[in-house]
Amino acid sequence: MEQELEQVSQIYNIVVEFLVEYSFQIVGAIIVLIFGIIIGRKIGNLIFSLCQKKELDATLSRFFASCARVAIIAATVIVVLPKLGIQITPFIAAIGAVGLGAGLALQGLLSNYGAGLSIIITRPFIVGDTIKVQGVAGVVEEVHLAHTILTNEDSVRITIPNKHILGEIIHNSQADSILELSVGIAYSSDPKQAITVLQEALENIEGISEQRTPQVGIDQFGDSAIDIAIRVWVKTEKFFETRYRCNMAMHDALAKNNIAIPFPQREVRMLAE
């Protein structure tokens, strides 16, 4: 019992001595740390606003802002620790050793961060672009250091680790996706008239890109019809919705102008013996 009381007394004396010696330093360190965090946030927001005014990519703007904020907070911590009597030199050595072990154990995660940093700097795509990579397609919603988030017309969020993007073939069609359609007309119909009718039918359909003109022309000559191919660029978020509108508009336009859409036919002849 006496030994326990003596141990408690020693701990109490150590705590009191520490508080007496470092009380002002502790209060000052806390104030400096809070001040550093506030300044870091302010500087980060200021850099983000400045990048937005310069019309930089949103992903790159967030990256610069985050780097500035983390750098200021880290510098504040380095200044605060010695005020508490904590030497940072042993910590730096320990962090180096731990970092080496963690790097070996977390190679996959670190490769994602390295790939994310490369994507942010080189910018093969930006937020709002439509990309296709590794058999997955969608609109880029967010680009993080570890992963990239895509979304599609069904509001499905697709998360791709950045290491599966870097070094792969990326199809980037900016904000639009290519929509390819086809319709057959009878050989008795005038293909020039059909092409003109289809072009006019596609002029005012919602969802079709206004920056790219639809392409309409003869694709091939089938057994029962002349195949007319249609290529239009549509907003990725309304891909299937626009597809259905285009098909209905083309059907109505061809029917209105008496242009027949034939169906496969076979002519059978009976030969007399």
How would you characterize this protein structure?
By secondary structure, the protein is an alpha+beta fold. It has three domains: 2-86, Helix Hairpins (Orthogonal Bundle); 126-172, SH3 type barrels, CATH 2.30.30; 176-256, Alpha-Beta Plaits (2-Layer Sandwich), CATH 3.30.70.100. The protein is built from six helices and eight strands, in the order H-H-H-H-E-E-E-E-E-E-H-E-E-H. It has helices at 2-53, 58-83, 88-105, 107-122, 191-201, 239-256; strands at 130-133, 136-143, 147-151, 157-161, 171-172, 176-185, 215-221, 226-235. Strand 2 and strand 3 form a beta hairpin. Helix 5 packs across helix 6.
Descriptive terms for the model:
3 domains; SH3 type barrels; alpha+beta; 3-stranded antiparallel beta sheet; Helix Hairpins; 273 residues
